[in-house]
Amino acid sequence: MGFCIYINSLCEGSVPLWRDKLGNPAVYESLADAQREIAEDTIERLQQFLNGERNFEDAATIEEYVVEVDVLPDGSIVDADGNCFGAGNC
Question: Which residues touch 73 (CB under 8 Å, ≥6 apart)?
Answer without folding.
Answer: none
